[in-house]
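Design job #97: recover the sequence.
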């Protein structure tokens, strides 16, 4: 498989409280499913808490930890 598109997504917001990390992860999950696409995620500042194990997901939110793990299986995640 030849890589034709490369994406780097930077998350610098805490996992819960606004929708930016969720939207970035949702985009990444859809991109990694495509042929010829390479996805890398860089977590910085409060964004590193997205990769924390054992998160307690607030009511009404998606589990960010689970989304990060799914992306890490198919792409790259760095802090």
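Job complete. Output follows.
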């Amino acid at each position: 498989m030849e890589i034709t598109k490369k994406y780097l997504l930077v998350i610098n917001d805490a996992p819960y409280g606004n929708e930016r990390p969720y939207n970035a992860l949702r985009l990444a999950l859809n991109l990694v499913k495509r042929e010829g696409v390479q996805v890398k995620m860089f977590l910085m500042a409060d964004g590193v808490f997205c990769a924390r194990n054992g998160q307690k997901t607030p009511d009404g939110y998606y589990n960010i930890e689970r989304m990060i793990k799914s992306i890490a299986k198919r792409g790259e995640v760095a802090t």
